[in-house]
Design a protein that fits this description.
Layout: H1 3-8, E1 11-12, E2 33-34, E3 37-38, H2 43-48, E4 65-68, E5 78-82, E6 86-91, H3 108-114, E7 117-119, E8 125-127
């Protein structure tokens, strides 16, 4: 797996100062994906799950396609797919949490308490994914 995939693969979360902590969800992101969507899954397989829209919202970073979650037009979240590496990024649905109870709006303190975080070269905070050494 290339370094690009190692940097991009994982659950995307946004940090918001002062956001409240969340309870651990019954259906969290796992170390290799979320429900049927798995990291490195080819685009056609990801689209066949029915979890994401079948249209791309355009090329994102590194010339990847982004597919939003089904039924959530205009909402943040979805998957980013590379033609070379398959699914390289799974972004949380609004309200979606990791097994550690972290999601969009979690405080920086909560993220740092749940994960061993570091600042990436692009200035974003990253954390190793428990159980998947190839993802951040």
């Amino acid at each position: 797996m290339s370094n690009v995939v190692k940097v991009l693969a994982g659950v995307a979360i946004a940090l918001a100062p002062g956001a409240a902590a969340h309870a651990v969800p019954a259906d969290p992101f796992g170390p290799f994906g979320y429900r049927q969507i798995q990291l490195e899954m080819p685009e056609h397989q990801a689209l066949a799950t029915g979890m994401v829209e079948t249209y791309s919202t355009g090329l994102g970073q590194d010339r990847c396609d982004h597919f939003p979650w089904r039924g959530m037009p205009g909402a943040a979240g979805g998957i980013t797919v590379s033609s070379e590496h398959g699914v390289v990024l799974i972004s949380a649905r609004p309200g979606q949490l990791t097994a550690e109870g972290i999601g969009k709006g979690s405080t920086r303190a909560a993220v740092e308490a749940a994960y061993d975080v570091h600042e990436a070269a692009n200035g974003r905070m990253e954390a190793a994914v428990p159980g998947n050494p190839n993802a951040v």
